[in-house]
Design a protein that fits this description.
The protein is mainly α and 185 residues long. 72% of the residues lie in helices and 0% in strands. The chain has eight helices and no strands. 36% of the residues are buried. InterPro entries: DUF2231_TM.
Length: 185
């Protein structure tokens, strides 16, 4: 995976589209809307990492209900919950993307494309399940789950290896208080 990450980080072909997308997102998220979407106002840290837990959790459970518990209606409902939760997750992700540096935007654009494809496949799966085309719908959600997992890996790389939206906190000295232990610091 390290090779893939390095390749994406250095993919200058992604600079023009990622800059264009960043510029559009910055215009849309200027001022208070962007501050809220990025979590700058409250809670004071990025919201995207917390919000993605809902669609990822719902979509990760859906295959269990398809293949193990044999409850396709529950799988469909979980996919629906994930689709509803994907909207605020994506909005906060785009707001964070607009604040990333060039290398982070390269990876971020691929992260968004992979997750967007996964979301679209989940949407098709949901619709297919409502129409009764269960085998194709299950196949779509299975592929989508794999894509979302890969997209999440890229997101983890953005945050943990590249420091996307966490640079300001890297050298932060913890405040004194009950959670601060100078022996461990």
């Amino acid at each position: 995976m390290t090779g893939l990450f390095s390749t994406l980080e250095s993919a200058t072909a992604l600079d023009r589209p990622s800059t264009a997308v960043r510029d559009v997102v910055r215009r849309i998220t200027a001022g208070v809307p962007g501050d809220l979407l990025r979590g700058d106002v409250a809670p004071g840290h990025p919201l995207h990492p917390a919000l993605v837990a809902i669609p990822i959790g719902a979509w990760s459970c859906a295959p269990l209900f398809d293949f193990v518990f044999r409850k396709p209606e529950t799988a469909r409902q979980l996919i629906g919950v994930g689709l509803v939760a994907a909207l605020p997750s994506a909005l906060t992700g785009w707001a964070d993307f607009a604040e990333c540096d060039t290398q982070q935007r390269r990876v971020g654009l691929v992260h968004a494309a992979v997750n967007g494809t996964g979301i679209a496949l989940m949407g098709l799966s949901y619709l297919g399940r409502r129409r009764g085309t269960r085998p194709a719908a299950v196949a779509a959600s299975t592929v989508a789950t794999a894509l979302i997992g890969f997209g999440g890996t890229l997101g983890g790389h953005l945050a943990f290896a590249m420091g996307a939206r966490v640079e300001g906190n890297r050298n932060r000295v913890p405040s004194a208080g009950s959670a601060f232990d100078p022996v461990l610091a």
